[in-house]
Amino acid sequence: MNDEFKDQDPDPRDTASGAREEGVTMAFHGYHHITTTVTNGRADVQFHVGLLGLRNVKRTVLLDGSRPFYHLYYGNEYGEPGTLLTSFVFGPEKPEGKKGSGQISSISLSVPKESLNFWVDRFGEHGVAHEEFDRLGDRRVWFRHPDGIDFQLVGVETDDRLPWHGSDVPPAAAIRGVHSVTVCTRETDELHYFLDEGMGLESRDTDGSVSSYAMSAGRAGQLVEIDHQPEIEQGSWGYMRNTVDHVAFDVKEATAQLDFKDHLEAMGYIDVTEPRDRNYFYSVYFRTPAGAMFEATRSHPDGFEKDEGLDSLGSCLQLPKWLEERQPELIASLETLEPLD
Ligand SMILES: [Fe+2]
Q1: Residues with CB under 5 A from ligand 1 (ion)
Q2: What's the gap in Å between 36 CA and the centre of ligand 1?
Q3: According to CATH, what is the number of the domain 28-306?
Q4: Cα separations in angstroms, 172 against 81, 112, 114
């Protein structure tokens, strides 16, 4: 129903220059959000808010399809790009996703390196299975979302992103934001070409099967990891439960977002969408040669304060204007899935 986008800005390039430039390689500088698909909404809130100490900054619905599902957002105080994790809550209705090639196989979050012991103790206290290990020069802790999605905490020297201070996690240990994602793929050659020529990422280090790519300066929040697994089968692509659905990279300007779309199309990667209005941001989705779904995302100027005050972010269901008429029906439908409170 809502694939059509509302209130979309006109293409600013049509009035600015009258012509579209081809061959522009956009410099991504960091993440916007990472979206998972989960089964149990309350367990998802407990994981992100209760365990990880993130703020629930928005409670809304998935904007594709007529059947509503919760879409929950977590991040720092303002829900700033680069701190955002989001979840589609599918309950038992969708099939279980198949892990494999072409999927984001792990989400890594940045924490101060001296706080890793705090997190190991915290996981122990909460009964969360975890394991410490080293990769690409960083000390890390592996753990899992209750629906089986792999996560890592990566200890970093410096990360000046402001964390959420409203949880029981001490500010000195709080999660600063996304560190990186790991994309699992059975073939790497064309993916390397795509990341390099298509997205402007710079190849960095390799550690075993995992290679890193950098946006901008390559700090925490500016890294993408590729895990080469030549024997692994293809993973699922669609809306299925308990996988990472897609990863979004932050774009500041409408022109840059459209230039990037044109750039991919000029390379023959035409599996890329027009900007879609997702109420809090505009999204251009593009499929990578590995199969993983990426997104180039430009925030709405008001961000998550568009429809709620800063102090009450995430406190109640918010719907885009074009769905407000359906609110009673949508709430009734959501409650058949699972009440969140
Ligand atoms: Fe997204």
Answers
A1: 35, 248, 295
A2: 9
A3: 3.10.180.10
A4: 21, 7, 9
| 39, HSE (Cβ side, Cα atoms, 13 Å) | 13
Q: What is the mean pLDDT of residues 236-242?
A: 94
Pairing of strands 177-185, 223-228: parallel
CA of 34 to the centre of ligand 1 (A): 7
Q: Are 153 and 112 in contact (CB under 8 A)?
A: no
β-bridge partners, 66: none
Domain regions of the chain by residue span: 28-306
Whole-angstrom CA distances from 225 to 39, 123, 212, 243 are 26, 24, 4, 17
What is the overall mean pLDDT for the chain? 91
| Residues 295, 249 contacting (CB under 8 angstroms) | yes
Reading the block at residue 199, the tokens are 């997205």
Assess whether pLDDT exceeds 90 at residue 5: no
Express each pLDDT in 68-79 by its tens digit: 899 999 999 999
How close is the Cα of 280 to the center of ligand 1, in Å? 11
Cα–Cα dist 163/80, whole Å:
10
pLDDT of 339 strictly over 80: no
Confidence of residue 324 (pLDDT cuts 50, 70, 90): confident
| Strand partners of residue 33 | 84, 248
Position 213 pLDDT exceeds 80: yes
